[in-house]
Structures are given as C-alpha cells and as structure tokens.
Amino acid sequence: MREECLALLGIKDQLTDMTALGAGYTNGGIHTAQWKAFMFKSGNRFIEENCVQAPKTTALLRGIPGMETAFFSILDPRQYITPHWGYYKGYMRYHLGVIIPDNNAEQKCWLRVNDNRAQNALKDKDQIAFGEKYHWHDGEGIVFDDNYLHDASNESDQVRVVLWLDLRRKMPFYASLFNRFVLWLAGRDKSVEKIRKKATVNA
Q1: Sign of the C-alpha dihedral computed for residues 124, 160, 143 and 21 taken in this order
Q2: Which of 58, 66, 158, 175 has the CA that lies 20 to 30 A from 3?
Q3: 39, 66, 115, 131, 191 from 156: Cα distances, Å
Q4: Domains annotated on the chain, with CATH
Q5: 125-160, pLDDT tens digit by residue?
Q6: Residues 140, 161: contact at Cβ < 8 Å?
Q7: What is the pLDDT of residue 86?
C-alpha cells in the first residue's frame, strides 16, 4: 500500500482537491486547506479507473465488509483542518497511517476529537480545545466518531497520507437495515455521482 501511495504522490498535481469533493456539505471551512484525495470507493461503488492504479490496495479494500467510502487523504505540509462535525451518524471513520513524516517523532501530525456530549451540544467550535489528540504513526489505525467535533493538522514540512475509510456503524437489526437503505439511496444521488466523476484520475 505504501509503495502504491508513493507512486501516486508522483502525480499529486493530478489528484483531486478535497474542495471538489465537498458536495455542498463542508464547503469553505475545512476545505480551504491544501488537501487532496485519491478515491477508491464512494457511495458504495468502487471507481474502477482509479483502482487499476493501485491494485494491491484495492484488493485489500474489496475484502472489507461494510465499507462505504475509501481514499488516500493527502494533506500538504503546514496545513490545518479547522474544527467541524460530520454530517451522517450511520458511519464510523477509520484512519490508517500510510505516510507519516518521520513516523511522527516530533508529534506534528495529529487528529483531535472532543467526544464530550455536553460540550458538543453547545455547537461551539472553540470547544475543540478540550478534545483529545491522537498522533498518527505509519501502519497504525484509529476508529472514531466524526459526528463529534474534531480537527486535524500536519505541522511538518512533508506530505502526510492516511487511508480514510467510512464504515457502516454497528446497529440493532432494524436500524441497520434502515441505515443500509439510506446509504443505498445516497449512493445513487446525483451529487454522489458527480463526486465519483470528479474523483476519477487519469494517469
């Protein structure tokens, strides 16, 4: 996976800006950072044109049940992703460190999450100051609920890459069926189809 990711960084200028993938949900704010994506799957559909460019990574991803979204999240040096909340409670998010500068020896690449319900209910982004920081490392992963207030940063002088997955949240049987139906409908929405088209990279 790391080797395929490094090869893709060789064409980083051709990769999709996160701004183009906001679908109207998170325009401005977090998408003002210099932040790119190489997308494998969106709306529960693989982007086959992209997958052929990273076949070993794709083979691993195809074996993951309940995965709705998958991409390399590529954050340029000295970039900050401002505090924000996710927009759908049917997911849990997973990040795997793929290329972490100096394996984060100086703790310059981090994710911070405030999971205090009372503080989140205030809808005050300044409450991020009370969040807990996670420092990425190569080959290590974290699962978190992006519906809690969170931010992230790459304070280093090198590119940081994590593999980003959105996984269906475990729920009681009937709630799980409803969640699958909602995600099935969303995957066929025109806005999601536009995202897949914008995310397609021609090597």
Answers
A1: positive
A2: 66
A3: 24, 33, 26, 21, 34
A4: 2-199 (2.60.120.330)
A5: 999 999 999 999 999 999 999 999 999 999 999 999
A6: no
A7: 92
Nearest CA-CA partner of 74 in 30, 136, 15: 15
Instruction: Print the SS3 string covering the chain.
Output: CHHHHHHHHCCHHHCEEHHHHCCCCCCCHHHHCCEEEEEEEECCEECHHHHCCCHHHHHHHHCCCCEEEEEEEEECCCEEEEEECCCCCCEEEEEEEEECHHHHCCCCEEEEEECCHHHHHCCCHHHHHHCEEEECCCCCEEEECCCCEEEEEECCCCCEEEEEEEEECCCCHHHHHHHHHHHHHHHCCHHHHHHHHHHCCCC
Between the alpha carbon of residue 193 and those of residues 12, 30, 43, 196, the distances in Å are 23, 22, 8, 5
Task: Specify the pLDDT at position 188.
Answer: 80
Question: CA 58 to CA 40: how far, in whole Å?
Answer: 7
- pLDDT at residue 203, as a whole number: 62
Residue recorded with tokens 């300044």:
126
Mean pLDDT of 47-68: 96
